[in-house]
Design goal:
24% helix; 8 strands; globular; 164 residues; eight-stranded antiparallel beta sheet
Length: 164
């Protein structure tokens, strides 16, 4: 099972970073692989909140439903995504940094379903690109939010990027 692991640091404060990333309705803002994302119902963000996403798959798109399984305010959010050909488990952890910013530790485990599982060994490059694009998009979105919030010279640095 491919694992994407990205670590991002931003000067955006912990509470703001958590609120933005934990609400997966915002994933289309920071994840280039997400075409659209909408919260299902009018519930507040927390355990059990679900989202309808349309994600890029190859040259097409596919619907997925993501549901928050674990919600620890300002610390951690875990989501499970289900689609016709893929399941995903995104575990996103947040930690305040000494400069008043935030460190985001994002791990996504992706599992292809059915006959698509046979392709997993050949898709390492595609999974790396997926992780790189998500890291780049999240970094950009957090830099923009920090700048809008007045955090001086936010140069969100990437510490680690890997696919296992």
């Amino acid at each position: 099972m491919p694992r994407l692991h990205e670590i991002i640091e931003t000067r955006l404060p912990l509470q703001d970073t958590f609120a933005f990333i934990a609400d997966f309705a915002n994933s289309e803002v920071w994840d280039p692989g997400t075409v659209s994302s909408k919260r299902i119902g009018s519930t507040s963000v927390g355990a059990g909140t679900s989202y309808d996403l349309v994600v890029k798959v190859g040259r097409g798109t596919a619907p997925m439903v993501y549901t928050i399984e674990t919600f620890e305010p300002d610390a951690r959010v875990v989501l499970r995504g289900e689609g016709a050909t893929v399941t995903a488990r995104d575990d996103i952890r947040f930690e305040a940094t000494a400069d008043g910013g935030t460190r985001v530790d994002y791990t996504a485990d992706i599992e292809l379903k059915g006959w698509m599982r046979l392709l997993t060994p050949f898709l390492g490059g595609a999974f790396r690109k997926l992780g790189d694009d998500a890291r780049t998009g999240m970094t950009r979105a957090l830099v923009e939010r920090a700048a809008a919030a007045g955090a001086a010279d936010d140069s969100a640095a990437v510490d680690t990027a890997s696919v296992r």
